[in-house]
Amino acid sequence: MLSYGRQTVEEDDIRAVISALKSDRLTQGRRVRLFEELLCEYTGAKYCVVCSSGTSALYLAYRASGLKENGSIITTPVTFLSTVTAAIHLGGLPVFCDIDPETYNMDTTLLEKAVEGCRNPHAIVPMHFGGLPCNMEKTREVADREGLFVIEDGCHALGSRWHDEAGRWHRTGDCAFSDMAVFSFHPVKTITTCEGGAITTNDKTLYTRLLHLREHGITRNENSFVGSMDGPWHYELVEPSFNFRISDVHCALGINQLKKIERFIDRRQQIAALYRTLLSDHHFIKTSCERADVLNAYHLYPVRIEFERIGVSKKVWFREMEERGIRLQVHYIPIHLQPYMQWRYGFRRGDFPESERFYREEVSLPIYPLLTDDEVKMVAQELVATLSTHMAA
């Protein structure tokens, strides 16, 4: 059964994990710091804090930024729930900006209006959908006018690149136009640590606070102690938090995976190019947009299908594809359509029409480095064949 995504774990990854398991420190050891240093080197950011998941990375970023009760974050409805729920845990209020129908990212032409329409705006949270970078310059411009944080949800986009108006290339996570960027290392992402996340930043104050918050809210740095140091075991509580640490075993896998990230991305781009070639002649299928000013890391390969026009329900067609050995996925149910969001915050169907239309049409096709060209061709053939059958009927 083919799936929309899966991990690429090779023999050298397994050896790296075994080596970590045989070491003296399974957690809070040197591999954690090494992974952070390598992520800084890769993204171009000054500082990095790795943690237990992409969700915890979002929570830590929001909390480090000072998000408080009734502070609003402005983001896209087309993202995973954590982008919003991590803020809700801190009393934050979700505010949405509809998507651009071509990029599927937050529509920056609507962003200023979204900010003006919310109370107590605190941060703009652009989410790089599928691995395609958002318009960070415009986002920063709006944020600066309103005095807001910019926190990039880069959970889809490790390894993606884009160039600014001056022609300079940036890698997602360099934080050139944001205060922080967060990443996920879930198995279907560009690289994996099984579960894990990271926050990058160029702000030393935010970095120091992230370190405290990751580990129960305590510090072991004697230079920041308020009281006298009792001995080498001494630590002090800065502010109560939780344990969001990631283990050395997970980081051993991440370190080894990071060595291969460009190969993984190259393969994802090859698969995306093959899908475009195979599906370009079919007017009822819209493939992902290509732009010369970005390098898409292709965590996802979304296509849009006009199911209503074809005359088949998405649910029925999904089952037909699964019967042919292809398990697809949808990214995502727009967050404002969730019953809790409607009950708690008053969102309604129709509030964000582009996001809702996208949800009706979007399907994520299999894309991961181990997928073969023959499997890509089979997915495309079955997709076209099943839809053509319904069109003929």
Features:
393 residues, three-stranded antiparallel beta sheet, seven-stranded mixed beta sheet, Aspartate Aminotransferase, domain 2, Aspartate Aminotransferase, domain 1
Description:
- With 393 residues, the chain is of the alpha/beta class.
- The protein has two domains: 2-258, 3-Layer(aba) Sandwich (Aspartate Aminotransferase, domain 2), CATH 3.40.640.10; 261-392, Aspartate Aminotransferase, domain 1.
- It is built from 14 helices and 17 strands.
- It has helices at residues 11-21, 30-43, 54-64, 82-88, 111-116, 136-146, 204-214, 248-258, 261-279, 307-310, 314-323, 339-345, 353-361, 373-392, and strands at 2-3, 47-51, 72-75, 93-96, 121-124, 149-153, 161-163, 169-171, 180-184, 197-201, 218-219, 236-237, 285-286, 294-295, 301-305, 326-327, 362-365.
- The strands form five sheets. It has a seven-stranded mixed beta sheet, with helices on both faces. The chain has a three-stranded antiparallel beta sheet with strand order 8-7-14, with no helix packed on it.
- It is globular.
- The mean pLDDT is 96.
What is this entry, summarized?
With 393 residues, the protein is α/β, with parallel strands linked by helices.
How much of the residues is beta strand, in percent?
15-25%
Largest sheet: 7 strands, mixed
Q: Which structural class do you get from the secondary structure elements?
A: alpha/beta
The CATH class of the largest domain: Alpha Beta
Helix content: 25-40%
CATH topology of the largest domain: Aspartate Aminotransferase, domain 2
Spatial order of strands in the largest sheet: 2-10-9-6-5-3-4
Rough shape?
globular
Arithmetic mean of pLDDT: 96
Low-confidence stretches: none
Please, what is the CATH homologous superfamily of the largest domain?
Type I PLP-dependent aspartate aminotransferase-like (Major domain)
State the separation between the terminal residues, measured CA to CA.
28 Å
Question: Over the alpha carbons, how many angstroms does the gyration radius reach?
Answer: 22 Å
DSSP, total strands:
17
- Total domain count: 2
Helical run tally:
14
The CATH architecture assignment of the largest domain turns out to be 3-Layer(aba) Sandwich
